[in-house]
Amino acid sequence: METILELRHVTKAFKDFALKDISFSLKKGFIMGFIGPNGAGKSTTIRCLMDLVHPDSGEVLLFGQKFTGDNKALKQKIGFVYDQDVFFQELTAEKNKQIIAPFYEQWDDTIFYRYINEFQVPLNKKMKTLSKGTKMKFALAVALSHHAELIIMDEPTSGLDPVFRRELLDVLFDVIQDENKAIFFSTHITTDLEKIADYITFLLDGKILFSKEREELSELFRIVKGPKSLSTTIKQADTIAYKETSLGFEAFMPADVTEKLAKKTAFHIERPNLEEIMYYLVKSKKRETAY
Amino acid sequence: MRSLMKKDVMIQGKRTYLIMLAVLIIVSSQSYFEDAFFKLSIFSALVAWVFAVNTNFGKQISDEQNVLLLSLPLSRRTMVTAKYIMISVWFTAVFVMLFGLRFLFICLSGSTVIGSVFLYLSAFLIGLCTICILLSFYYFAYYRWGIKIVQTAAQFIWPICVALLPWINLNDQQLSGLLLLISVLISAVVLVLSYYRSVRLFEEKDL
């Protein structure tokens, strides 16, 4: 499969924050979830992808091509959804569409109005009067209406009700049935990713902690639970995060370590979900560890 | 490019068009401006300035709209170029409207339209040079220091310019070929310098 998106050793320093050596790639036909706590650098990374922020070093490649001064051809193939009010707030949704559509060679009004009807976006209302969820629906309709091959979304599910979040995931699932397309989206809501993401990339404090297949990820870590009497044993092992509870302890550790432990002592071992992985990794702040 | 220019016309807002039309009607009907091509031309430049500033730095515009535009299949250079081209579009539209209304009022009053082709052309060029110089500084300031600075500045610069207009001591007889040539040369140099510097600044800018 052809690589549609690739970052190679991208760094970008700001006054109080920096992206450090960001590298990952996404192939056609897949969905990549981009997770990390607030301030981890997800939006900045997405801005690098969209050529809104210039990296200090490293390369951003889209469709196998580097960003140059003129990225018109590349951007024809990208659909974007941002978690901010980028549209013209004083204009109606219809007027915003009239401004945006002419820039795309393959703009398809039929698809646009189909999504608008499906999402029930009132086109005659000013953008500033629409709810955050409705604005997001409009942005999504725009992103999907010009036959984009790569959809880049920054927190598309935030501010959406659970029903539409589910609908959105269904739409994305439909989109990805075309194997020539790929979806890259950042989110806090990890349960969404567990439903549809093929790959998960985790960013913490401006560094990539891991970029792996979702299935592979669930094999990497374990949560070990046990009574307080076993806490000394577990503390001696290579735990990533450890916390004591009223009933005993919970330790988050690499899966291979738990296998060795399980042979010696009877611990209760669970597979963590994505939210737990994110929680424990952020909590542990073991940033130097590569998984 | 055309789509960007069309966007500027669309985001202007009906209220601005209506207010400016009312201003143009009032001004073009005033006897104060009788036989004052030069002043009417400068006034056209100031009205065009309102349109240009409003589309680029009005209250409804923020850096987020740049994020939208830059995510579209557009180069940064094209975005800057469209802004500079729109200077002449706004000015031409206002100039034609103002002088058109002036003709209308003259005809309605039963008088005959006065002025030579040279006078109209001179007035047009003087006005265009004025707006080009004004907005060259203004656009450069925007790309150099950001939208907040120019949004604040806009609230002071325009009223000051309008207040100064009656004090400009230059009548139509002084609209000579030499004055025109100097104006065109100065504005061309300022415009080109401002344009290239703005492109450079915008191409380097992080949003």
UniProtKB/TrEMBL annotation, chain A:
Domain called ABC transporter: residue spans: 5-230
Tree of life domain: Bacteria
One of the record's GO molecular function terms: ATP hydrolysis activity
Keyword terms: ATP-binding, Nucleotide-binding, Transport
UniProt cross-references to PROSITE patterns, sorted A to Z: ABC_TRANSPORTER_2
PANTHER family referenced in this protein's UniProt entry, alphabetically: ABC TRANSPORTER ATP-BINDING COMPONENT, ABC TRANSPORTER ATP-BINDING PROTEIN ALBC-RELATED
Protein name, UniProt field: ABC-2 type transport system ATP-binding protein
TrEMBL record, chain B:
Listed InterPro entries: ABC2_memb-like (IPR025699)
Transmembrane residue ranges: 16-33, 39-57, 84-105, 117-140, 152-169, 175-196
Keywords linked to the UniProt accession: Membrane, Transmembrane, Transmembrane helix
Recorded superkingdom: Bacteria
One Pfam family in the UniProt entry: ABC2_membrane_5
Protein name: ABC-2 family transporter protein
Source species of the chain: Sporolactobacillus nakayamae
